[in-house]
Amino acid sequence: MTPAAALLVLVVLVALSTGLGLLWRRRQGTVTVLGTGAERAADAPGRTGAVTVTAAELGLTGADAPPEFGREATLLQFSTEFCSRCPGTRVLLRQLAADRPGVTHVDVDLTHRADLARRFNILQTPTTLVLDSGGAVRARVGGIPDRAALHSRLDDLARTG
Q1: Block means of pLDDT (10 residues each) for the chain, length 161 residues?
Q2: Model-level pTM?
Q3: Predicted local distance difference test score (pLDDT) of residue 149
Q4: CA angle centred on 80, ends 79 and 85, rounded to 5°
Q5: How would you class 44 by CB atoms within 10 Å of its CB: exposed for 0-12, middle for 13-18, buried for 19 or more?
Q6: pLDDT value at position 30?
Q7: Which of 44, 52, 61, 82 is the most interior residue, by most CB within 10 Å?
C-alpha cells in the first residue's frame, strides 16, 4: 500500500469513528418513547404484545421490594456495581419521583443478573425504563436521563393514564 493510500484510509477511519461517536453522544440521555411496534422490538425474542414488568420478575422480594410500583409511573433504573454514572442517575431519578406524587423509583443492579440484561436488551448502564401504572414499558433512556424530557414523558403518562 502506498503512503498516500494508507493516509487516505486513516483519514476515512478517523472521520467515520468521529461521526459514529458524535451520533452516540447525541443519543445519550434522550427519552425514546415506545409505541406498540417498538415495545415488541424491545421485548425478548418470541414474546408478543407490550413489554410488562413485575416486581417478582425483577427479583424484588422482601426488604428490597418497593411497596408497589407507582400509581402513575415507575422509573426503573438498571445499573451495575461498576457504573460511574449510576449514582448520579439514582439521585436524579429519586428526586424526580419524590417531586411527583404517584411516581416511584426502582433501582435494579444487573451485576449478577445477566438474565435481566438480556430480557430488557440492556447494553449500557445506566438505562432507565419508564413504566406506566400497569407496568408496561412506555419509554427508554440510555445514559443519564434529561430531566426536562422525563418530566414531559411523565406528564404525557399522567394525561393518558
Answers
A1: 86 86 68 54 44 77 64 91 92 93 90 88 90 88 88 85 63
A2: 0.71
A3: 87
A4: 65
A5: exposed
A6: 66
A7: 52
CB 30 within 8 A of CB 140: no
Residue 66, pLDDT score = 57
Report the distance separating Cα 72 and Cα 155, nearest Å.
Answer: 10
Short-list 96, 121, 114, CA closest to 106? 96
Largest CA distance in the chain: 67
Phi, psi at 159, each rounded to 5°: -70, -40
Q: Is 110 helix (H, G, I), strand (E, B) or coil?
A: coil
Write a three-state SS string for 29-94: CCEEECCHHHHHHHCCCCCCCCCECCCCCCCCCHHHCCCCCCCCEEEEEEECCCCCCHHHHHHHHH
How far apart, in whole angstroms, are the C-alpha atoms of residue 57 and residue 60? 8
Q: Please state whether 143 falls in left (phi above 0), alpha (psi between -120 and 50) or beta.
A: left
